[in-house]
């Protein structure tokens, strides 16, 4: 054990605080985000901001046990805040919480006054709103730039795989709706797929959500060997 004294102690403390603040503020970039500028803003020190602070501070402690977080603050009305976070189903707790905490910092940094916002990292999603259901039909689509060498055979193999992971994810219980799978593609390649819904959806809602995002992706980008579609209540990737 050692004790720093005088100017050296102050200098060490300054450097330590600088590093802590740098680590806290330098969050990684989202894969995709939306601040929903058309759905209202809040002002500094308003009731909404206080409720948002409270909701997000509580959120990491509401883990369902399977990486789903849900918290609300305030009476019914425009100042109520609802926040939901979902970690990818194969992520361990430490990585999940790290991703969630990064999201809380980053989303408020890039959407400083918007009442509704959503951010997607690779390992987790965070959204908050003054509505219980986020007002959006927007799909975030991320693409692998490489095309399949044999598009017809690739999609012939892909279709049953996506049907399987959709069925497995939507058949999950109230704590987790997550599935992965793989199949043999053209030649010696293998195709991997993942599907996930927020577990508060019913099986039918999850199935409809996944079928919707998969349909948009496969119809528009059927030649791509990989990519993902992201919406607030479900996502898939291949």
TrEMBL record:
Pfam families: Stress-antifung. Keywords: Kinase, Receptor, Repeat, Signal, Transferase. CDD domains: Gnk2-like. The keyword Signal applies. Gene3D superfamilies: Gnk2 domain, C-X8-C-X2-C motif. GO terms for molecular function: kinase activity. The keyword DNA repair does not apply. InterPro entries: GNK2, GNK2_sf. Residues 1-26 form the signal peptide. Residues 30-133, 136-238 form the Gnk2-homologous domain. This is Cysteine-rich RLK (RECEPTOR-like protein kinase) 26. It comes from Artemisia annua.
């Amino acid at each position: 054990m050692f004790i720093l004294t005088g100017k050296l102690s102050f200098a060490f403390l300054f450097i330590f605080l600088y590093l802590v603040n740098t680590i806290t503020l330098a969050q990684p970039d989202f894969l995709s985000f939306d601040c929903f500028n058309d759905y209202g803003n809040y002002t500094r020190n308003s009731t909404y901001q206080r409720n948002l602070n409270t909701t997000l501070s509580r959120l990491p402690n509401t883990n369902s046990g399977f990486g789903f977080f849900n918290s609300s603050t305030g009476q019914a009305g425009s100042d109520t805040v609802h926040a939901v976070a979902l970690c990818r189903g194969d992520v361990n707790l430490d990585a999940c919480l790290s991703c969630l905490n990064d999201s809380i910092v980053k989303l408020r940094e890039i959407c400083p006054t918007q009442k509704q916002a959503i951010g997607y990292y690779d390992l987790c999603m965070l959204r908050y709103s003054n509505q219980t259901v986020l007002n959006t039909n927007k799909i975030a689509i991320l693409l692998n730039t490489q095309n399949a060498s044999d598009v017809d055979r690739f999609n012939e193999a892909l279709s049953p795989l996506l049907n399987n992971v959709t069925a497995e994810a939507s058949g999950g219980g109230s704590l987790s709706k997550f599935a992965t799978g793989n199949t043999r593609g053209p030649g010696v390649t293998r195709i991997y797929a993942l599907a996930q819904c927020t577990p508060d959806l019913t099986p039918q809602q999850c199935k409809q959500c996944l079928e919707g995002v998969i349909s948009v992706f496969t119809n528009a980008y059927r030649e791509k060997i990989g990519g993902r579609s992201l919406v607030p209540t479900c996502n898939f990737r291949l």
